Amino acid sequence: MTIEQDKIGHVINDIVSGRMDEQADSHIQQLYEEYQHGDAASHLKKYDSYDPDQAYDAFINNIEAKLHAKRRRRIAIGYSLIAAAVVASLFIFVNISRHDIEEKGVTTVENVGKAQGRSDKEVAQQKTIPFYSTSKPKLVLPNGDVVILSDDGVTIGDAKITTKGNTISVDGGNDEDLVKLSIPRGRQYDLELSDGTHVWLNSETTLSFPLSFSGDRQVAVTGQAFFDVSHTGTPFRVQCSKGVVKVMGTSFDVRDYAGETTSVTLVSGSVAYATNSETTQLHPGEQAVQEPGSQSIVVQQVDTRRFTAWKDGMIYFKDERLEDVMSDIERMYDVNIVYSDNYLRDMLFTGECSRFKNVDEFMKLLQMTGLIEYKKNGKTIILSY
Prior knowledge:
Helix content: 10-25%
Number of helices: 9
Largest sheet: 18 strands, mixed
Radius of gyration: 23 Å
Structural class: alpha+beta
């Protein structure tokens, strides 16, 4: 028996016996770690004698009892699905393995923030993230004309803007006038600016930038963008709706959707976030938060992966309200969420998974927690108990 088989056996025994204590949590955590680095499916056949429905029901009932005692609903999707998959002789990819990451060209979290010396595989990683919408990016020119970006690219004066997969590049040009790039729902792109800075643009994001920089470098963003700023010796500024991020060369995430909390999350280097009333210096691992309608800035330590995983084709949430999770899903997959009961909005979830080819795969994953049901009608998803 391999070490991995032994760990699966421990989890099986924990579930069938209805045990949900620290030892059981430890067994599931060990299997979870193995699960991230390999395919456990080949070891599942020996457990066909177990009744999957009975074992899974026991597992869910114990979780619900444990959560009810805490007076809130919360589930670790990764753990619950691993256990259910083992019992039912199924294998569901909650996390893509490191081998799959390398094969698909997707960068891991350790590669976030590398402004220089990126490999071809790292640069190409955005091409692996599917498009969930037929809508294409729009570019508003200085004269007000609107251009739909396509693989053929567009020439603006001396500058050439090309699109290949999920990558948009700006080459040449001496024009410092601003152009405005809008990314629709259901898509995301890696934009390479003329100075070598990379900007990952999430769904429903708009970036205003010059085709060429002269002196101070300044752009403006609404939505969500991850910046990997090149070191040129001149300052780089990102204008948000409530303030401005000042940086020399570093990597950070800006989230500034209308009506939502504005946040600046620093991965590496050092940045300052300034509003009309105050300026705050950030260090790696820190996040500046500004609530809607507030002028004050709150700085907090965060797991930066929560705010940067999207750029690497991952869905990651930790103790997040279901409404907040689904808000991102709406933008990502270009769908609309309807709640049958407002109570559902405040349920807390924790989970991590690779971005699936369609929203149904994610919803099936969420449904297997046993806490919600869903129905899909076109682009509308209805959530219920």
